[in-house]
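seq:
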Amino acid sequence: MLIGEVAQRSGVSARMLRHYDRLGLVSPTGRTSGGYREYSDEDIRRLFHVESLRTLGLSLDEARRALDEPGFAPADLVGDLIRLTRQRIAAEQELLTKLERVDASVPAAWSDVLRMVTLLRGLESEFGARRQQAILSHDDSATLPVDALAAAVLAEDDLNVAGALQWSLARTPGHGVAALEAGLDSPDVVVRRRAVTAIASVPTADASAALRRVLGDADDTTRDRAALALGSRGSVDAVPLLLAMIFEGRRDVEAAEVLGQLTEVSTSAEDIVTALQDAFDGTDANSVRLRITQALAEIPGNAAHEALTRLTAADDRTIAATATAILATRRRTGPAQKG
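struct:
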């Protein structure tokens, strides 16, 4: 076949066929009776092999080597092509995400688009100060990209920048809780911890609902942060975990303080004291008993006062002395409240 017919049947332009010929990649090896160069069946097969290899991302030189060099192994090259393709896909996905975030801000003019791109680029900076500046300088709360801010919070390890991000989210409708909640399902425990911390700063019912999901998390720190936040909001759902924090010595002072607050708004002081006493009687570990004694200092009312009075006679001198000191402080600060 002559070049024009080959171009028509193969879909490869005559110009590209001539380029292949100059490179020695695919050249017509036959001649017509009139002396014109003609593509043989073998030349056509080689052309289709070249085009097939190009669809995999091979360059023309790589395609030539693959066809002509017996020792040109495909494994390494294909592996490199896979890696490069994944990088291109990731870059395209990143661009798509950025475009979607710009679109979500409903820009009315190109100036709005440029402001949004400036913010998004600032969030991507490797320098914390620049990330913080980009956040604080975006003064239009109506165009803040909630998803981008939430994603940045979940990835941010600079506490100052994280605080600025949370401040920005607080200015958006819904405070970004729905977007942050996705972080609670992350397999990365650090991301889950960041999500809980950010959600805990939002004083809304949907934020409390999100925090309740975390009370069964496998990570102690994640659970504890959720329990402290919920307890501070008056949620009795946090009580079992707050008690466990005291027994196990995880932020036990904070847990006791939150339990004391709960007894004033939503749960019975007697129930808390009973749970603490049962745990005291159920362990021989003086370290646990001492934490329980100290926790009773935060519980108002007669029930805690009576429990502490009994503990002044405890066999362990440290526990007895601690209970005595707590009672002395209570007497100085005022009468025990009724539990």
